Amino acid sequence: MNTHASVVVIGGGVMGTSIAYHLAAAGVRDVLLVERDELAAGSTSKAAGGVRAQFSDELNIQLGARSLETFGRFEEETGYDIGLHRVGYLFLLSTPEEVASFEAGVRLQNALGVPSRMIDPAEARRLSPLIRTDGLLAAAFSPDDGHCTPEAVVHGYAAAARRYGARILRHTAVTGIERQGATITAVQTTLGRVTTDTVVCAAGAWSRAVGAMAGVELPVQPLRRQIAVTEPVPGLPPDLPMTIDFTSSLYFHSEGPGLLVGMSDPDERPGFATDTHDRWIPRLAAAMERRAPALLDLRRTGGWAGLYEVTPDHNALIGEASSVSRFLYATGFSGHGFLQGPAVGEVVRDLILGRVPFVDVTPLSADRFAADAPRPEVNRV
To answer: Which residues form the FAD dependent oxidoreductase domain (predicted)?
Structure first.
């Protein structure tokens, strides 16, 4: 093994492969990505695949919109078909507070170039005919949003990164990070020691432990989320949007001839468990009965569990550690990491190269919690 790297990226999901690709494409030599399992084996492969710019936080809107642009030309740039479906995101709103919040969000999104709009319940049902509109006050819709295949994005980035000279080590765990004072000097792995002065933590739900190796506090907790896949649905509209009942967090989108269905579970407690269970099904069924009763008749044919990487304000951690030189991080996305992967790869590349990124991510520094300056994201599922 070459025992030196200019940059070591830890984590082989969408965030790590995007960062490695953007660095290598910018001409950075000796970029090394280290993944303890297979590429995309962590949270990325378990994501629902939604891509959007409908957020309440200005930074998230910009990161989402920039990533949507990249997803739109991904196959042209990398040669990988990511199964992009630009069918839109539809948020169903049932309380005056939700409506007011999304109206403010749409105004901000429009000011930043996102073509989202508020619509009435009748139009929402035309877009997503599986829903019922009882108790629905309004909805928010953006046609540029949609969904694609997370694993294809990871493998596309990885292949392109290799073409530009990056090295990728799979089945290689990071066991330690060496420092002299505040300066990183090496990364220890199960394949040996790699000298470097720059490390990027893109380890998702496992980032707290990676940060601790360098003496950096990354307040990330793993939280299990589950997804179900249904049998084929006759007459399913080909342009069915990603539909989210915001009050209950129930969501669904097309998955082949059937549906992918998910929902948050308030009874889940932080931890690394990724086995599936049925304790969430009664709450899921109640949400379906209220907002999409047609889903109750569908048979489950599969499903899985994965990990969200959650921060105290449900917003990302992006930046460089203040206490350790050249330890950067991109983690804690709390459910919207996959969709922001392309843009965050650009940002981290620029931070490493001393460039000014297209968006100022200073407010997403991990130091914001010590400074009592959280930055909450409202539009999350």
So the answer is: 7-351
Q: How many whole angstroms separate alpha carbon 278 and alpha carbon 284?
A: 10
Q: What is the dihedral of CA 6, 11, 17, 19, to 10 degrees?
A: -50
Of 281, 310, 339, which residue is a domain's last?
310
Q: In Å, how far from its chain's centre is CA 152?
A: 14
Per-residue model confidence (pLDDT) at position 2: 63
Q: What is the pLDDT of residue 314?
A: 97
Which of 141, 90, 138, 96 is CA-nearest to residue 115?
141
Assigned token pair, 308: 């969200």
**At residue 1, does pLDDT exceed 90?**
no
Of 369, 373, 374, 342, which is closest to residue 358 (Cα–Cα)? 342
Cα separation, 106 vs 89, whole angstroms: 13
DSSP 353-366: HTPPPSS--GGG-G
Q: Is residue 125 part of a domain?
A: yes
Single-letter residue type at 72: G
Q: In this structure, are 157 and 129 located in the same domain?
A: no
261 and 352 fall within a common domain: no
Amino acid at 127: L
| Helix or strand holding residue 10 (H, E) | strand 7-10
- Report yes or no on 103 lying in a domain: yes
Pairing of strands 31-34, 7-10: parallel
Structure tokens at 216: 């950096």
Neighbours of 140 (CB within 10 A): 26
Q: Are residues 127 and 229 in the same domain?
A: yes
Contact (Cβ atoms closer than 8 angstroms) between residue 22 and residue 345: yes
Q: What per-residue confidence (pLDDT) applies to 260?
A: 97
The pLDDT-based confidence of 363 (bands split at 50, 70, 90) is very high
Instruction: Note whether 300 and 317 are same-domain residues.
Output: no
Both 236 and 293 in one domain: the answer is: yes
Reading the block at residue 145, the tokens are 């949003």
Half-sphere exposure of 346 (CA within 13 A, CB side): 16
In sign, the C-alpha dihedral spanning 211, 217, 219, 224 is: positive
**Same domain, yes or no, for 168 and 134?**
no
**Residue 347, CB-side half-sphere exposure with 13 Å CA sphere:** 29
Helices (H), the chain: 14-25, 58-72, 74-78, 96-111, 121-127, 150-163, 207-213, 281-291, 337-353
CB neighbourhood size of 132 (10 A): 14
